[in-house]
Write a structure and sequence with these properties.
This protein has about 350 residues and is α/β, with parallel strands linked by helices. The chain folds into 2 domains: about 150 residues, Quinone Oxidoreductase, Chain A, domain 1; about 150 residues, 3-Layer(aba) Sandwich (Rossmann fold). It has 8 helices and 15 strands. Strands 3, 4, 5, 6, 7, 14 and 15 form a 7-stranded mixed β-sheet that branches. It has a 6-stranded parallel β-sheet with strand order 10-9-8-11-12-13, with helices on both faces. Helix 6 links the parallel strand 12 and strand 13. Helix 1 packs across helix 2, helix 1 packs across helix 7 and helix 4 crosses helix 5. The longest helix has 13 residues. The chain is globular, with a radius of gyration of 21 Å. Bound molecules: NADPH dihydro-nicotinamide-adenine-dinucleotide phosphate. The site of NADPH dihydro-nicotinamide-adenine-dinucleotide phosphate (NDP) has 29 residues, from helix 1 and helix 2.
């Protein structure tokens, strides 16, 4: 009998989740039915959006159920197959993470041809976060020649690619991130023009105004709150905001207090548009073509923060909200190497 180790959500967190909201559970897996595939997960993605699904409210995805395995993106390999399209050893991506092994129907799996790219990059720069950056900057923010671009949470999985695409296309980029190490990486490795350490600035609006005396034309928002307020304050007329995420708001227990300057949106004729990457699947071929070309040409860099072992996945998730990650947060589920 195969056993599956899984992380369950056992409480709906208030504020920042804690380890006590999760449990590691071992459950038996039934034998494979006809048409099913047994997948052993090797890498698991940890994403800020999971926090939203911990509330018992309907959104673009249903809430997580208590006392069941969580769901999240994962890369694994086929261990056993009773489906003609999947062979043992195939690399597959699914949303059946937060468990080490799973019996999956074929339509829950996407075969990945990894080529020269490390498989876990298909959870990061060559996967959902990468496409989020691409869609947000090119379609939602309608990047135009000459735009000055401001990016928050800029050293993260999404933000670091936004910065690099904008630089590849010749733009002035202003980034914000927490702490000197992230600031140095953005400036020295990614070639970002101006970087704000938001944790060290008494006024984000003043810091942004200093970094962008000409104003900003595009704001790629990963943070919301005070970052959104600063971007609205410094935006030029007709600036476009891609509202990708608002991580500063996900653990709030009371009403938000910022931004307080929404009225400026009208007078400056700003365009703010939220989006969900999965609503833009039509851009996937373009994204895949461009990302593979840029990677093959050595034009992109990425970082990973890797947590070892399924049992430590809750810490990895919690760490996203305190900036513990530097680049894509991943959990390595492969057996420990000696
Ligand atoms: P990141 O790799 O960027 O990790 C999150 C980062 O957010 C942390 O490293 C931290 O960096 C920063 N952060 C956390 N709390 C705060 C805070 N209170 N104020 C400022 N910064 C904070 O995560 P992702 O790249 O996966 O996601 C980035 C954003 O994109 C998130 O908001 C996420 O929800 C959103 N997203 C949206 C999608 C969509 O379809 N719309 C799809 C995927 C992601 P630092 O140390 O710099 O503070």
């Amino acid at each position: 009998m195969t056993e599956s180790k899984q992380i369950h959500l056992i409480n709906r967190p208030t504020g920042l989740p804690s380890k006590a909201d999760f449990a590691l559970v071992t459950a038996p897996l039934p034998p494979l039915a006809d048409g099913e595939i047994r997948v052993r997960n090797d890498w698991m993605s940890v994403d800020p959006a999971m926090r939203g699904r911990m509330h018992d409210v309907e959104s673009y995805k249903p809430p997580f159920k208590l006392n069941e395995a969580l769901y999240g993106l994962a890369i694994g390999h086929v261990e056993e197959s009773r489906h003609p399209d999947f062979q043992v050893g195939d690399i597959v991506r699914s949303e059946l993470g937060w468990r080490d092994v799973v019996n999956a129907p074929a339509d829950a799996l996407e075969k990945i041809d990894v080529g020269e790219i490390p498989p876990q990059a298909f959870l990061g720069i060559a996967g959902m976060p990468g496409m989020t950056a691409y869609v947000g900057l090119l379609r939602i923010a309608e990047l135009k020649p000459g735009d000055v671009v401001f990016v928050s949470a800029a050293s993260g999985a999404v933000g670091s690619l936004v910065c690099q695409i904008a630089k590849l296309k010749g733009h002035k980029v202003i980034a914000s991130a927490g702490g000197p190490e992230k600031v140095a990486y953005l400036k020295d490795e990614l070639g970002v023009d101006e970087v704000i350490d938001y944790k060290a600035e008494p006024s984000l609006t003043k810091a942004l105004a200093r970094a962008a005396p000409e104003g900003i034309d595009v704001y790629f928002d990963n943070v919301g709150g005070d970052h959104l307020q600063a971007a609205i304050a410094v935006a030029n007329r007709f600036a476009r905001f891609a509202i990708c995420g608002m991580i500063s708001q996900y653990n709030l227990t009371g009403a938000p207090t910022v931004p307080r300057n929404l009225v400026l949106i009208m007078g400056k004729a700003l365009k703010l548009q939220g989006y969900i990457v999965s609503f833009h699947e039509d851009m996937k071929p373009d994204f895949q073509r461009d990302i593979h070309q840029w990677l093959a040409d050595g034009k992109l860099k990425w970082k990973e923060s890797v947590v070892e072992g399924l049992e430590n996945a809750p810490d990895a998730l919690i760490g996203l909200f305190t900036g513990n990650n530097f680049g894509k947060m991943l959990v390595d589920l492969r057996p420990a190497q000696d």
